[in-house]
Recover the amino acids of this structure.
């Protein structure tokens, strides 16, 4: 997946719509994540996670962000700050100060009239990562990896 500007920004928001964001470029990573942190933080068997360059991410509201958001940092990963909507409680984005990338989740991207994600061809996942701790086998065509795609052992 290559980085680059888009004809129109990618948009996403929390469940209630109080918090929104836009993304000016393509994801540097898009994958179904089966890691135990994602499982425990969301309660879901896996999530569609996407990483974007920090310079491509913009909040839809003006600073200071404390009016709309609260923040949580996993003790084992102090470089990652998760941002939650104060109104509906949904985590909408996470910033990694080591990589200077933002993470967002596919389920919160703007939908079209047919219910699908508007920009699916731009953001669709390329792999299943941390597949060793999966709660569900996914017999699709994407590669299955112990950790990150192309940076860990392949499991399929
Ligand atoms: Zn909300
Ligand atoms: Zn994960």
């Amino acid at each position: 997946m290559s980085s680059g500007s888009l004809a129109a920004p990618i948009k996403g928001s929390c469940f209630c719509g109080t918090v929104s964001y836009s993304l000016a470029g393509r994801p540097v990573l898009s994958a179904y994540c089966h890691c135990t942190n994602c499982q425990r933080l969301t309660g879901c068997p896996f999530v569609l996670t996407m990483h974007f360059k920090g310079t491509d991410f913009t909040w839809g509201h003006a600073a200071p962000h404390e009016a709309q958001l609260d923040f949580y940092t996993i003790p084992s990963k102090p470089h990652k700050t998760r941002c939650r909507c104060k109104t509906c409680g949904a985590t909408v984005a996470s910033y990694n100060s080591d990589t200077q990338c933002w993470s967002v989740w596919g389920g919160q991207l703007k939908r079209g009239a047919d219910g699908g994600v508007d920009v699916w061809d731009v953001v669709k996942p390329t792999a299943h990562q941390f597949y060793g701790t999966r709660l569900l086998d996914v017999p699709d065509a994407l590669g299955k990896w112990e950790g990150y795609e192309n940076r860990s052992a392949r499991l399929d």
In short: The two ends are 21 Å apart (CA to CA).
